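Lecture notes, unit on protein representations.

Consider one protein chain, 272 amino acids long.
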Amino acid sequence: MKTLTFTLILFCCISLPTHSETLNIQMMADFIPQDGGNPENEATTFLLAAAAELGDEISLHFIPASRLREWQQLSKMNNVCLYNKLKTPDREAQAVFSQYPLMAFPANKLVVFNKPKIPDSITLLQAINDFNLTIGIIKGRSYSEEIDNFIRLDDEHFFMLEGATNAPRLGQMLFQNKIDAVLEYQTVFNNRYKRAPGLSHIRYISLKPEKAALFGYIACSPTEVGKQAVALFDKALKTKKVRTLISQRLKALFHEGENTQIVNAFNAAFEH
């Protein structure tokens, strides 16, 4: 009888659901939630929505860091994650990426000021060889695998500033004719300089070959903790609630025509 009682107690203990500890993740970012808890950009809004969907399974601690430092921390700590990051072979060699995107945005444009003779669509090689443009970029930012490789091989034609907070300065230099062009998203540049007197002389040149959309993912330390974090984020991102939130906001964020293309590309990323 005592043996039976002990067996039943042991069986009940084994059958009881266990609650794993909360996964604590250090989020390195150049944009972090404000003191009042309000996000400073769209990607942060989406990240917080995914975390809220996970409840006490994950806890995010935001730490301000430059673009260069945030990637360095992936190899120094076992529980670091970054977000809204493009996937490139170089980056995938140093981080574990989420399967599903957190953010979608259109391809970068070549933004020019007072240059009516440049065609509406060109390659970067044409921009440099045919028009001798000096192009402003942010060091450490990925523009796409193709563009990043081009910059790496021909960096003397690019004017680089470090840090995301310096992006507005590139636009100011463009209006002052200190550089010839800037690589930027059309919606971002339009919103940033919508009150600039010279905005009517700005043109957005498409770069060939142009993609329908680019995606920002979550990247974490290549450790067991990092893999657990990515698995949790993927679980949240593929829920109908989070996907619907992101899709609706993307549709409102970008201009008509472009937004439909971006939302369709975002939703298609979940079908594979």
